[in-house]
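task queued by scheduler; priority normal; single chain, no ligands, no partner chains; default sampling; output format set to structure tokens
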Amino acid sequence: KVLVSGGAGFIGSNLVDSLIDLGYQVVVVDSLVSGKKEYINSQAKFYQIDILSNELEDVFIKEKPDFVFHLAAQIEVSKSMKDPLKDAEINLRGGYNILDNCRKYLVKKIIFSSTGGAIYGESEIIPTPESYSTNPLSFYGIHKLSFEKYLKCYNNEYGLDYGILRFSNVYGPRQFKGGEAGVIAIFIDNAVNNNSSIQYGDGSQTRDFVYVD
């Protein structure tokens, strides 16, 4: 059995579909602040709960997940710069709530969806290797990297197994086109609605994209 936090979001809901196709029982926890209920696979069990809530523990007690994918987060860099404490509240304290329940209820492994570019900062090596030194330039990146350290500490102290995925720019079905990210979804939406798209800079910028599947 797998619990997916943020399982009603763009990446989370695609992950849930894949897990169900692979034969897993899936439990989704999502506040629906940015996720959409219609994205949730009908075969998944859904709890509308914020990861900051004490009710999260009740889900772990009842469902007894073997594995946890933690995707629920505040995802916008610009919002983290305007309100760093709110970003920390969700991405650190909310993440800790997930993590400590994993410890208490003997989850076998937690897999954390971190970030690539926001953790490495302005890299001087392109393509940037995973081993490149971390230098986050935003509170979002700082908090994502901090939670990676939480995972390492829990592994050292309690033996909780973990994995970390530092995504680049993810694109694909269900991508939200109203935020700061998702340039492919934004440009496609503009195209089908006969609107122009704006690219800042001189056109020579590069981005690394990975398909959600």
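post-processing summary
- The longest strand covers residues 109-115.
- The two ends are 21 Å apart (CA to CA).
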